Amino acid sequence: NAGVTQTPKFQVLKTGQSMTLQCAQDMNHEYMSWYRQDPGMGLRLIHYSVGAGITDQGEVPNGYNVSRSTTEDFPLRLLSAAPSQTSVYFCASSYSGGTLTGELFFGEGSRLTVL
Amino acid sequence: GENVEQHPSTLSVQEGDSAVIKCTYSDSASNYFPWYKQELGKRPQLIIDIRSNVGEKKDQRIAVTLNKTAKHFSLHITETQPEDSAVYFCAASGGYSTLTFGKGTMLLVSP
Fold this sequence. Notes:
heterodimer, B: mainly beta, six-stranded mixed sheet, five-stranded antiparallel sheet, 11 strands, globular
């Protein structure tokens, strides 16, 4: 198993550009999520999905869109990049037995710089 | 929503000493409390977790304690080693795998 795979690992954007961070998992996990990590701020939840066709907002959703058309994939779209979106982004997945929370498996991270 | 506070933000110890990191949470409905370790430039990885029906859990040199009444939980690392140096995150969840993380503790273990 490859686990959780994120691409790209590094990206530089100009303000106003759009891009998609890709995330795929091969563990048949129902739950997938995106976090951003900023110095001194910990990991903050952007969006999450409890299954194909279902998405919901986390703590910091503004400026980001997600979709979940398959169990395996959960892309994160930046519609119009801003310098405040400079961050390291982590995709994570988990087996979620309904209300029971399981271990989160993280991807390697994507470092995004917006100029 | 849930709010998780983590202290201290940095912790320096000598090799062989014990280290304790403390977290508090706000939502009494939270029932799952994991700890993640993140080495420099790496992804966070689960090191230990505890559910609300348990007060303490140990795994070799690592232990976690939970006080539901006070809404706080702690990570204890004994006999620290240089390879324990990393950032540690606590988190809390009320279900469906949605975790709220603390801001992290940088642990530095000096030889």
